Amino acid sequence: MLQVTARTKEEAEMCPVRQVLSQVMGKWQMLIVLSLEDGALRFGALKRVMGDITQRVLMENLRKMERDGHLTCTVDPGPPVAVSYALTPLGREPLVHLKALTLWAAGRHAAVTGNRSRYDAP
Amino acid sequence: MLQVTARTKEEAEMCPVRQVLSQVMGKWQMLIVLSLEDGALRFGALKRVMGDITQRVLMENLRKMERDGHLTCTVDPGPPVAVSYALTPLGREPLVHLKALTLWAAGRHAAVTGNRSRYDAP
DNA sequence: CAGTATCCTTTACGATACTG
DNA sequence: CAGTATCGTAAAGGATACTG
Predict the structure, then answer these.
(1) Dihedral, A30, B97, A100, B32 alpha carbons, nearest 10
(2) pTM beyond cutoff 0.70
(3) Which of A12, A56, B66, B101 has its Cβ near the most Cβ atoms within 10 Å?
(4) Which among A4, A93, A104 has CB closest to B93?
């Protein structure tokens, strides 16, 4: 398998795979990627679509992903200003895998719920 | 797209997709799944393979994944005791997608590093 | 509307010591 | 060797208020 393990924390932070993955696999990043699949969204719309995320946290994640080149930020000076975020080609690449995982998770929810009950019950 | 968004925190916690995904997409869970791909490992060996994880955190994650049915825990009473962990068929299912993501991340490391420098520089 | 700043809580994690 | 318990720290996140 690929090298994703490390012996120290410093080594882990330098792991190339982890560095790239962390920008799309996190709880919020993944939701952002999926939310932008069908096209650009303005900040407010994106926040509304995601629902349970605060403005501050959404901004943080958007900036990190912009920095890594996963999405672009386009400003239309208004007034009022309109800022929209869109996935770059690079940002679209993991989409297929993330969707596959999401689909798998959806299909396995019943099984997992059953396993949890069985584990907790006795 | 599938429904992975939520309007409240409670709604998010009940999201079937998020519930299942959280057991394999977390930083540690993903490393555990990948580490067990080639077969069962004893606790100590698994800890050594992963390197930068503490005993406590590894135990926590193993228990959560065992609860969800992603892996089994087999005890061979010694002495000394030997406890080995192995993926279940359910636990193997996400492997293909996780490996695809890992492979993608490895291939894009250079691009992302470049993007970061460009973003930070000016 | 988009963005920043501040404060506070919670969660994840690390380190270490102890037990069968 | 595997597992538990305790304590402390650091990171993530939530709430809210304020600005152009």
Answers:
(1) -60
(2) yes
(3) B101
(4) A104
